């Protein structure tokens, strides 16, 4: 599924071309948001599978492995934001990291701190990217009457 969504993203040149509002709302956003969800789910499933199998690469503890996976996911979302303008996918990452932080808050673990830090980084990068590209935003297009 992750591969199929990635191919769809590339083939349709999503978020690279200037398209009408309806194309963005009805085609791009659903695919990009779904891609973000599937990225988070894939990373979580792979990490869970490693724990289930007892596989500890480089003899890393589970907590450190989770932190590494959060950082890798953050780097992937930043890559998608910078190279493909996928602010929506990055915001899915923010949501996921906040959820991880809330879940780990009671343990007061480094996982929670890392997840909060990564969500702040992603949100800030997304906000800066959105501000820099505000003339191409949906709100700006609607104000200009560019629905189709």
Number of strands: 0
Largest sheet: none
Q: Which structural category fits the helices and strands? A: mainly alpha
DSSP strand content: under 5%
The total count of helices amounts to 6
Q: Summarize the amount of helix as a percent range.
A: over 70%
| Helix and strand run | HHHHHH
Distance between the termini: 30 Å
Morphology call: elongated
Low-confidence stretches: none
**Average pLDDT taken over every residue:** 89
Describe the structure.
It is a single chain. The protein has 148 residues and is an all-alpha fold. It has helices spanning 2-11, 21-53, 62-84, 87-104, 110-132, 138-144. It is built from six helices and no strands.
Descriptive key words:
148 residues; mainly alpha
How is the secondary structure organized here?
Layout: H1 2-11, H2 21-53, H3 62-84, H4 87-104, H5 110-132, H6 138-144
Tell me briefly what this model is.
This protein is mainly alpha-helical and 148 residues long. It has helices at residues 2-11, 21-53, 62-84, 87-104, 110-132, 138-144.
């Amino acid at each position: 599924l992750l591969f199929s969504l990635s191919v769809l993203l590339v083939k349709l040149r999503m978020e690279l071309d200037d398209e009408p509002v309806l194309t963005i709302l009805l085609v791009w956003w659903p695919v990009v948001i779904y891609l973000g969800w599937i990225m988070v789910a894939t990373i979580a499933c792979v990490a869970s599978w490693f724990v289930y199998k007892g596989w500890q690469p480089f003899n890393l503890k589970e907590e450190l492995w989770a932190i590494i996976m959060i950082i890798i996911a953050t780097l992937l979302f930043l890559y998608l934001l910078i190279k493909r303008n996928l602010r929506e996918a990055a915001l899915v990452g923010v949501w996921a990291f906040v959820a991880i932080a809330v879940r780990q808050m009671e343990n007061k673990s480094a996982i929670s701190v890392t997840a909060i830090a990564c969500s702040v980084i992603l949100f800030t990068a997304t906000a800066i990217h959105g501000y820099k590209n505000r003339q191409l935003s949906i709100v700006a297009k609607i104000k200009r009457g560019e629905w189709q």
